[in-house]
Write a structure and sequence with these properties.
The structure holds 2 protein chains of 2 kinds. Chain A is 59% helix and 0% strand. In chain A, helix 1 crosses helix 4. Chain A has a single domain, classed as ACP-like (Non-ribosomal Peptide Synthetase Peptidyl Carrier Protein, Chain A), CATH 1.10.1200. By secondary structure, chain B is of the alpha/beta class. Chain B has 2 domains: 243 residues, Thiolase/Chalcone synthase (Peroxisomal Thiolase, Chain A, domain 1), CATH 3.40.47.10; 146 residues, 3-Layer(aba) Sandwich (Peroxisomal Thiolase, Chain A, domain 1). Helix content of chain B is 34%, strand content 19%. Chain B contains 15 helices and 15 strands. In chain B, strand 9, helix 13 and strand 10 form a beta-alpha-beta unit. The two termini of chain B are 27 Å apart. The chains are: A mainly alpha, B alpha/beta.
Chain lengths: 82, 417
């Protein structure tokens, strides 16, 4: 999957479902800039499973700090597990 | 912030400064007052229930409110439908009480809400886990929607409450006990402001097992005539729901902040039948009523109006009629069951019926027990009102009874300084 498509799906989820109004710039910190809290990460895990078809590993997600990290996390997983 | 232990040595007077309601007969106090006065029914026949195999498709109908724009997503995703109803009724109650967030923030405001089920989120989560074998897909809001304490846990966070915070699950007396326990906490000085109330979900799955017991009226050809408490031809209750909120406050607190005082809670009585799980007796309710009178230091002759529990079931109504006759035989105060219009609001009923009674008290009328056409051998001894009467009400008794033989009686009084 192209990274652009991942960005589109994730950004759409963040703005429509999580109702995040801040600018979804790649270096935005998920917690500090976008206000995403621990419970929201459960819903992010749900959207990843539903849209990208893989289960999120909590340990790997620990390194995801920014929006770009999140896109890359999904992109890398999809490309390394083809 | 003031000390939250008030006047431990003294008994506080407990007043009601705010009420709110979201029900089958109106989405706010004005609409509900009109419906009560006109004797309007909120009962419909729901074809979807029939499609699911219900013996009775009769139900109260409540529209689900849209809270988007009122509270944020995190606050919304943890709320089941009855929490949404309770949010709306609580907003209205706080408004009538002239309470704002600033006052709540500066005081140890509490919540005790009645609720005894949250079916849909439980079913939805189980469906996902069974099918997908994956708990993550249940999402982040499910647990907060699923627990019995869903209403108190959500509202306490939304309104940033810092006082008492729990749910009362006492079957169909939940909403009444919530006010009773709130009354005791304020009376004995442990709290000065509490959001009390009751909420009830209304959906196709929550009452399926109730339907299985043949507890529901099957008068499907005439939905608005199906709920007929005390009538000889009653054949069962009609499930219903929504939410009602009652703001309790110490008299001292209400006077200090210049709050509108709508009524005073003067008595609470409770009991357990010590009998059958679903078949009520006469003694249990009678003891609860007598305890409330004793607690209020009132004689039966001083009660101006009784809002009966009567749900339209053959035995339940008969036994309440017997209990009322034994206590109130001397002066026969007006009696009506507003469930004739609303259906049985179950976990909500004990609170909504206090709201209905206050509306009657404020507007000097007794709402009718509609569909009471033919008395039976027990109800013929009571003064059951089947057409609205204009009448001053100073003191009112409200009964609520539930499965397991839990009984609650509350007495409220028009406020006098």
């Amino acid at each position: 999957m192209e990274k652009e498509k991942i960005i589109k799906i994730i950004n759409n989820f963040l703005s429509e479902e999580l109702e995040i109004e801040e600018d979804l710039v790649p270096d935005a910190n998920l917690r500090d800039d976008l206000g995403i809290e621990s419970l929201d990460f459960v819903d992010i895990a749900v959207i990843i499973e539903k849209e990208f078809g893989f289960k999120v590993n909590a340990e790997n997600m620990a390194d995801v700090k920014t929006l770009d990290n999140l896109y890359d996390y999904i992109f890398d997983y999809l490309n390394n597990n083809k | 912030m003031e000390d939250y232990i008030l006047n431990k040595k003294n008994m506080n007077r407990v007043v009601i400064t705010g009420i709110g309601v979201y029900s089958t007969i109106g989405k706010n106090l004005d609409e509900v007052k009109e419906s009560l006065y006109k004797g309007k029914s909120g009962i419909i026949l729901d074809q979807e229930r029939k499609d699911y195999g219900y013996k009775s498709g009769l139900t109260g109908k409540v529209e689900r409110p849209n809270l988007k724009g009122l509270i944020n997503r995190r606050q919304r995703v943890g709320m089941a439908e009855q929490g949404e109803y309770a949010y709306i009724s609580t907003i209205e109650a706080l408004k009538t009480a002239n309470l704002d967030q600033d006052y709540i923030d500066k005081n140890y405001f509490g919540i005790i809400y009645g609720n005894d089920s949250s079916t849909i989120p439980v079913i939805d989560a189980v469906d996902i886990i069974r099918e997908k074998r994956d708990t993550v897909l249940v999402g982040s809001g499910s647990v907060f929607q699923s627990m019995n304490s869903t209403v108190s846990m959500n509202l306490s966070v939304i309104f940033k409450l810092k006082g008492v915070n729990f749910t009362i699950s006492g079957a169909c007396a939940s909403g009444s006990h919530s006010i009773g326990i709130g009354y005791f906490l304020i009376k004995h000085g442990y709290q000065k402001n509490i959001i009390c109330g009751g909420a009830q979900e209304v959906n196709i799955f929550s009452v399926g097992s109730f339907d299985a017991l043949s507890a529901f009226s099957t008068r499907e050809s005439e939905p608005t005539k199906a709920s007929r408490p005390f009538d000889k031809n009653r054949d069962g209750l009609v499930p219903s729901g929504g939410a009602a909120t009652v703001i309790l406050e110490s008299y001292e607190s209400a006077i200090k902040r210049g709050a509108p005082i709508l009524a005073e809670v003067v008595g609470y009585g409770f009991s357990s039948d010590g009998g059958h799980i679903s078949v009520p007796n006469v003694d249990g309710p009678k003891r609860a009523i007598e305890m409330s009178l004793k607690n209020a230091n009132l004689s039966p002759n001083e009660i101006d109006y009784i809002n009966a529990h009567a749900t339209s079931t053959p035995l339940g109504d008969a036994n309440e009629a017997k209990a009322l006759y034994q206590i109130f035989n001397n002066h026969k105060p007006p009696v009506s069951s507003t469930k004739s219009m609303t259906g049985h609001e179950m976990w909500m009923a004990g609170s909504s019926e206090i709201v209905y009674s206050i509306l009657m008290m404020q507007n000097s009328f007794v709402a009718p027990n509609i569909n009471f056409d033919t008395p039976d051998e027990n109800s013929k001894h009571l003064n059951i009102i089947n057409k609205t009467i204009n009448k001053n009400i100073d003191i009112c008794l409200s009964n609520s009874f539930g499965f397991g033989g839990t009984n609650s009686s509350l007495i409220i009084k028009k406020f006098e300084k």
